[in-house]
Design brief:
By secondary structure, the chain is mainly alpha-helical. It has helices at residues 33-46, 53-56, 65-78, 82-90, 93-101, 105-118, 143-154; strands at 57-63, 127-134.
Amino acid sequence: MFMEKVIFKISSITDVITNSSTEVFQRYDESSFDVLKELINNVLKLSNSKLTFDDLFEIRLDIELDDIIDEYGEYLERLNNGEKAVRFRDADYQEKYEMLENEDYDTILQIAREYDEARYSDGYPAINGYTVSLKSDIAIENKELAKKIAEQLSNMDNLFESYACYC
């Protein structure tokens, strides 16, 4: 079976014509953040603020850790990380989850990308969104409002819900 990965932007539902062998998947990556950052930077400029998105907020991809637990164990073995790999192998599911949860973000992201690439055609990616949060060390007057804005920005991808089916 020949499978080719093609990436294209969809501007409307009529851009996608499907038959039984065509599927469309949405994938997240950091380039998706540029438009969001630009929007917030322009709103800040409009209000005469010298701050930028990056001064106020952090943005990260959401990763389903449950999906990549097994891959994390394989990653530890590939690194020849003996003690940690053995501890992971002997741990129960909750302990494995906590070990993965406590790993640094860049490592988790690398494992999730490998998982998604290997299972591209499955249509169930480990990376499934993003989260915006207020930087913890930022000194601003109205932190509660800024936290609410971060929460709202995290839900921007839900603004337009899409649904596809075979007809």
